[in-house]
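Is this the right way to post structure tokens for a design question? Let me know if I should format differently. Anyway, here goes:
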């Protein structure tokens, strides 16, 4: 091996180490980012269902409703949960399973599976299971966190039923007792 070849090999090895180091630094959570797994627990807030298609909500063009959910977050950002929307008297009838991911940069993507009852013009109805994709952000500090997401909800697309769902949920991480 000549000096020139050895120098190139050494430079290539140093460059590879630098690239690997930069990649690891980029993959780490930003300073002040929450420990994602610590966000597991009860979340609550409100949802807004805004008419965009032909169908209206039971309250007209916009419906505001309470939302509660229990989520489990894994260290890699994966989340799973059950969410209850609407008045407590209708639960667990109006529950949906949520799956998704919370990234260290604060972005959140969720897929909610729901059931809808679609009413035909002849008065008959049928139940439809469908999914709503949501996207948004996770923010917070000092143990108080917020998820704000929105998505297009089309429970009965053949009838032109389309809504924008905007959901805001809050969570307070319980303080851990200090050990002496």
């Amino acid at each position: 091996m000549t000096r020139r070849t050895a120098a190139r090999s050494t430079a290539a090895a140093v460059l590879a180490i630098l690239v690997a180091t930069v990649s690891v630094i980029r993959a780490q959570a930003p300073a002040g980012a929450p420990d994602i797994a610590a966000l597991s627990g009860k979340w609550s807030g409100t949802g807004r269902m805004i008419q965009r298609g032909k169908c209206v909500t039971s309250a007209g063009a916009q419906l505001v409703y309470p939302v509660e959910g229990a989520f489990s977050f894994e260290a890699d950002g994966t989340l799973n949960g059950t969410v209850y929307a609407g008045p407590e008297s209708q639960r667990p009838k109006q529950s949906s399973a949520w799956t998704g991911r919370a990234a260290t940069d604060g972005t959140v993507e969720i897929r909610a599976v729901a059931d809808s009852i679609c009413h035909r013009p002849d008065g008959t109805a049928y139940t439809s299971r469908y999914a709503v994709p949501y996207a948004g952000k996770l923010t917070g500090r000092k143990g108080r966190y917020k998820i704000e997401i929105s998505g297009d909800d089309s429970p009965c697309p053949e009838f032109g039923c389309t809504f924008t769902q905007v959901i805001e949920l809050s969570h307070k991480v319980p303080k851990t007792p200090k050990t002496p």
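Format looks fine. Someone answered above. Worth noting: The chain has one helix and eight strands. Helices lie at 3-27.
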